[in-house]
Amino acid sequence: MTKFDEATQAIRVDDGTYDVCIDPGYAIGGPLNGGYLMAVILRAAVDASPFDHPVSTTAQFLKAPAPGPAQVKVEPLKAGRTAAFARATLVQDGVAQIESLITTATLNDVGPIYAEKSAHDMPALEDCVKLPDPKPESGMTLSAQMELLFDPPTIGWLTGNPTGRPESRAYFRMAEPQDPDPYVLALAVDALPPVVFSAGARGWAPTVDLTWHLRALPAPGWLTLLGSGRLISDGWFDEEVEVRDSAGRLVAQARQLARVGRG
Amino acid sequence: MTKFDEATQAIRVDDGTYDVCIDPGYAIGGPLNGGYLMAVILRAAVDASPFDHPVSTTAQFLKAPAPGPAQVKVEPLKAGRTAAFARATLVQDGVAQIESLITTATLNDVGPIYAEKSAHDMPALEDCVKLPDPKPESGMTLSAQMELLFDPPTIGWLTGNPTGRPESRAYFRMAEPQDPDPYVLALAVDALPPVVFSAGARGWAPTVDLTWHLRALPAPGWLTLLGSGRLISDGWFDEEVEVRDSAGRLVAQARQLARVGRG
Fold it and tell me: A205: closest CA among A174, A247, A242, A238?
């Protein structure tokens, strides 16, 4: 069992109730990463489902849970022949923290009927760059769990040269030996710095809700995260993340609605 | 009150319960259009919210409700200073038909900080084409409620010339005099023929879940619906719909996960 598997473990207490322990190692400053928290919820939801894979997940981030014990409550809504629907709620100290709707199904490894190519050609791995290590006092413990190698212009904001467009692109893998799976993908779809940084915005950019679709089971190796946005207006922005596996296949698609930080 | 306003009316019975009447005029063959059903749910959810607009909606289509009386149950989850979260369920004869998570907020008419242009230039309105009127026995009553003028290649599938890519693009307005509003947008994001028809697929393509974001309040006039998909695989496809208003502004973004029809 990897560290990530352990940090996302959900132990069945009874029909519909799972004990989890939120790990402080996935924090982005104070709050915990939303993708990590989704992975925790999905462990419980998939365990409670007759199917193997979370093909669709929508999460509303009501509150910011703290590290430590919590529970996932799973309410099955309907199970059909190809898919099952459930509601899952992350609860801490009796208070709902994240509300989610999850559709599960079992994906098969078949060739696609139609597959659109990636809209962005990434530079080679060796031409991509890391972010500087965060200061220990920043509370960015998430950085130690994963490796991100960025398409250089998309982190130009760090040195005062934002591209002027909401975008962020990077290669991604876990820091420990761990092949990507649907739970790693849940982390990956929310792992990039907010795309608005590249458009000149700064500060904490809280996710309000996030929906992602698992489209295929990822091959071992690096993932590619392609992040973009279409509109920044009235304090809101959209962040779209497309995830490709090492074979170039589309494995996940996500869109989140988030608030522009005041910073 | 327009016919659409009436068909989507939600009458408050008590805290969290609304009576609705599902109108047979929004059917696509047997089942009712998912966008219409979302509009009904949103009427109740917005009425129960301290805010004015449904900025994010995710719906899981558990069952196909029948025309006639139904109820929307709204469960508020959290209300903050800028947004409120709620769960809303469409119930008929005591059985949940559609489960949804809705985020409400109040959008202001401000200029955007960043706005990406549309990825597709549409032909002029006069160069776009209607679908032939459906046969009365088809049960496609939805067609009479709205006008769709298609970018001609994207309905080439109708005459045996699919483009080979999942795509569908059209101008949209209600058939009766009715300016677009968030409820019309809920209908619009699910109003196109399935994008997979253009990739050669046929038959009923049921939506499993759909998420859409309201990004701005639409100007009066025609809407433009730009539909596309990235992957058709293992019986699943994604349908992305971007909605622009008559001023060219991005007003809604949607993605649904659906099943490829056997037909």
Answer: A238
Q: What amino acid is encoded at A195 in this protein?
A: V
Structure tokens at A143: 């950085």
Residue B103 and residue A230: Cβ atoms within 8 Å? no
Q: Which residue of A has its CA nearest to B230?
A: A116
The secondary element (H helix, E strand) that includes residue A186 is helix A182-188
Cβ neighbors of A33 (< 8 A, separation 6 or more) are A26, A27, A142, A187, A190, A191
Put simply, whether the predicted model's pTM sits higher than 0.90 gets the answer yes
Which residues of chain A does B208 touch, with a Cβ-Cβ cutoff of 8 Å? 55-56, 83, 103
- pLDDT tens figures, A202-242: 888 899 999 999 999 999 999 999 999 999 999 999 999 99
* In chain B, % of residues over pLDDT 90: 90
What residue of A is the nearest CA neighbor of B112? A233
The full DSSP string for B45-114 is HHHTSSSSEEEEEEEEE-S-PPSEEEEEEEEEEEE-SS-EEEEEEEEETTEEEEEEEEEEE-------SE
Contacts with A66 (C-beta within 8 Å, 6 or more apart), sequence order: A22, A92
The residues facing B163 across adjacent strands are: none
Contacts of A223 (CB under 8 A, 6+ apart): A171, A172, A173, A180, A184, A185, A188, A243, A244, A245, A246, A251
Smallest Cβ–Cβ distance between A238 and the set B60, B105, B253 belongs to B253
